[in-house]
Amino acid sequence: MSSLSTLSAPVSLLQPAATKPTIGASMSGSEIAKRTAIHKTATDFEASFLSQMLGQMFEGVSTPAPFGGDEGEDIYKSFLTEAFAKQMAKSGGVGVAASIQREMLKMQGLS
């Protein structure tokens, strides 16, 4: 048995980083709306951040003909990286959304 097989990742690393807004029975409608808007804004920001990072990853990569090499390839690459980023953020992302959400909640006086 190798030493790698005995290692395990902490459970916190296996959970999605972004947290959905916690909605309690004692919250008003406006507070629920604020929390939902903050969650969406934080997730959208993370998707935008990831899109930029993934765009850098594909920079300079070209596909030879007949499947690439045209001017439209760059346009479709940006669509692809944007779709990747949105799905990554929706699935929990890399932790940017959770940090942004926490700070936005503090700024609004919510916990």
In a nutshell, what does this entry contain?
The chain has helices at 11-14, 29-58, 72-90, 96-107. By secondary structure, it is mainly α.
Structure description:
This protein has four helices and no strands. The protein is mostly helical and 111 residues long. It has one domain (27-107). α2 packs across α3 and α2 packs antiparallel against α4. It is elongated, with a radius of gyration of 19 Å. Residues 5-15 have low confidence and may be disordered.
The CA-CA distance between the termini, in Å, is 46 Å
Approximately what portion of the residues adopt beta-strand conformation?
Answer: under 5%
Low-confidence stretches: 5-15
Q: Main sheet, how many strands, which sense, barrel? A: none
Number of helices: 4
Radius of gyration: 19 Å
Helical content band: 55-70%
Question: Average pLDDT, to the nearest integer?
Answer: 80
The overall strand count is 0
Keywords:
single chain, 111 residues, mainly alpha, 0% strand
Topology:
Layout: H1 11-14, H2 29-58, H3 72-90, H4 96-107
Helix pairs in contact: 2-3, 2-4
